[in-house]
């Protein structure tokens, strides 16, 4: 009987043990696919679902089966994001992705007096004219303003990423008008001039100083040319035709500095010695008539009047029409008004014109081979009818 119970007990334990034991279940591995990712240019970081894979293009990426987001990033290029479907145990080659260059650009607004100058950047025509903005990649660029009947104005600027700048007004120097030509004898072949221009904008008068120099005809290279005013040297920039020009820039937006009245300036040229090198630039000129934007009937005489502090030894007036044709009256002495007759006005075209009043001094040098001119100008825009 005891043996029976022992056998029954053993069988009971075995039965219970067999009933509780679970069958073996195979472990499933995650299904994955493979994509070969390539880009132009290469070396772009490959991100999968916003996690950096540690790889760069071109390379193979493994990811879970199904839809996954891929992002390619590369310095100086826009991020490129796209979705792909990974299929289990499949190897797929993705087409080459062309990354878009991220141009880091800045904008600068250029204006000139007069307006309508072509804006060239590093020797390339931007096909924009002043006043207008130019957008370029970061860095220092050479700007050239070009306008018929005016000297080119050349200067450098810095374009900065995301920055919009306004460059100081560039006062352009007219080739046919900036200086008197009658000095009581033969016209000197070497001309050095400082021009002080007073311009009013919105009731604010801006005094801007520029300079030009030419040596011979055609102009010759005379090395470094400078003008000194109030103890400061200003270096003129040699142009492609060997003429020298100084124009305002970002560091000196009003150009050459002057006293409130007349100012003495001194010229120097590395390869040309001046026996007389100083001349006085008159004080500020205020054009009192005609007023800005006045309508001028060509059938009547035009009276131009002005006031000047620290006047020069001579005065002149100029009227220039929209086509660049001008009436120039110089050697007027110290008078502060002058008339343009109706017959003279009718030689000019209807439309916008500029009226100038000029006060100036000049010094002959090197046996009349050179002339130094100090000139102050004020002008108003008018409408000839």
Descriptive notes:
This protein is mainly β. The protein folds into three domains: 32-98, Carboxypeptidase-like, regulatory domain (Immunoglobulin-like, Sandwich), CATH 2.60.40.1120; 105-171, Sandwich (Immunoglobulin-like); 190-384, Immunoglobulins (Immunoglobulin-like), CATH 2.60.40. The chain is 6% helix and 51% strand. It contains two helices and 34 strands. Strands 19, 20, 23, 24, 28, 30, 31, 33 and 34 form a nine-stranded mixed beta sheet that branches. It has a four-stranded antiparallel beta sheet with strand order 4-3-6-7, with no helix packed on it. Strands 13-12-15-16 form a four-stranded antiparallel beta sheet, with no helix packed on it. Strand 25 and strand 26 (278-281) form a beta hairpin. It is elongated. Mean pLDDT is 84; it is low at 1-21.
List the helices and strands and how they pair.
Blueprint: H1 2-20, E1 32-37, E2 39-40, E3 45-48, E4 51-56, E5 59-64, E6 66-73, E7 80-86, E8 91-93, E9 97-98, E10 105-110, E11 112-113, E12 118-121, E13 124-129, E14 132-137, E15 139-146, E16 153-159, E17 164-166, E18 170-171, E19 190-201, E20 204-215, E21 225-229, E22 232-235, E23 237-238, E24 244-246, E25 263-269, E26 278-281, E27 285-289, E28 295-296, E29 302-308, E30 314-320, E31 326-329, E32 337-340, H2 342-345, E33 351-365, E34 370-384
Parallel strand pairs: 1-8, 2-9, 10-17, 11-18, 19-34, 28-34
Antiparallel strand pairs: 1-5, 3-4, 3-6, 6-7, 10-14, 12-13, 12-15, 15-16, 19-20, 20-24, 21-22, 21-25, 23-24, 25-26, 27-29, 29-32, 30-31, 30-33, 33-34
């Amino acid at each position: 009987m005891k043996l029976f119970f022992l056998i029954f007990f053993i069988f009971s334990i075995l039965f219970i043990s067999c009933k509780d034991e679970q069958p073996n279940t195979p472990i499933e591995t995650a299904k994955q696919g493979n994509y070969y990712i390539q880009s132009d240019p290469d070396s772009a970081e490959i991100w999968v679902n916003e996690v950096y894979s540690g790889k760069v293009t071109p390379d193979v990426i493994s990811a879970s089966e199904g839809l996954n987001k891929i992002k390619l990033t590369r310095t100086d290029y826009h991020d490129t994001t796209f979705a792909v479907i990974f299929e289990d145990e499949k190897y797929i080659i993705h087409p080459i992705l062309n990354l878009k260059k991220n141009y880091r650009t800045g904008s600068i607004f250029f204006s000139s007096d007069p307006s309508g100058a072509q804006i060239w950047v590093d020797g390339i025509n931007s096909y924009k004219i002043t006043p207008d903005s130019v957008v370029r990649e970061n860095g220092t660029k050479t700007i050239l303003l070009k306008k018929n009947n005016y000297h080119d104005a050349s200067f450098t600027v810095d374009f900065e990423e995301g920055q919009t700048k306004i460059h100081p007004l560039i006062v352009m120097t007219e080739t046919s008008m900036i200086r008197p030509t009658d000095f009581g004898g033969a016209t000197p072949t070497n001309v050095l001039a400082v021009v002080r221009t007073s311009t009013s904008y919105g009731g604010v008068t801006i005094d801007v100083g520029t300079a030009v120099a030419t040596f011979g005809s055609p102009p010759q290279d005379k090395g470094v040319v400078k003008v000194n005013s109030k103890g400061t040297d200003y270096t003129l920039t040699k142009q492609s035709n060997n003429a020298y020009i100084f124009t305002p820039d970002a560091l000196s937006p009003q150009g050459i500095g002057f006293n409130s009245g007349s100012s003495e300036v001194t010229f120097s040229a590395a390869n040309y010695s001046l026996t007389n090198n100083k001349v006085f630039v008159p004080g500020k000129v205020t054009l009192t008539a005609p007023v800005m934007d006045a309508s001028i009937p060509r059938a009547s005489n035009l009276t131009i009047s002005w006031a000047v502090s620290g006047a020069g030894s001579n005065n002149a007036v100029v009227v220039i029409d929209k086509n660049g044709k001008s009436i120039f009256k110089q050697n007027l002495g110290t008078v502060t008004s002058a008339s343009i007759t109706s017959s003279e006005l009718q030689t000019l075209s209807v439309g916008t014109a500029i009226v100038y009043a000029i006060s100036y001094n000049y010094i002959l040098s090197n046996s009349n081979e050179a002339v130094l001119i100090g000139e102050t100008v004020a002008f108003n825009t008018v409408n000839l009818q």
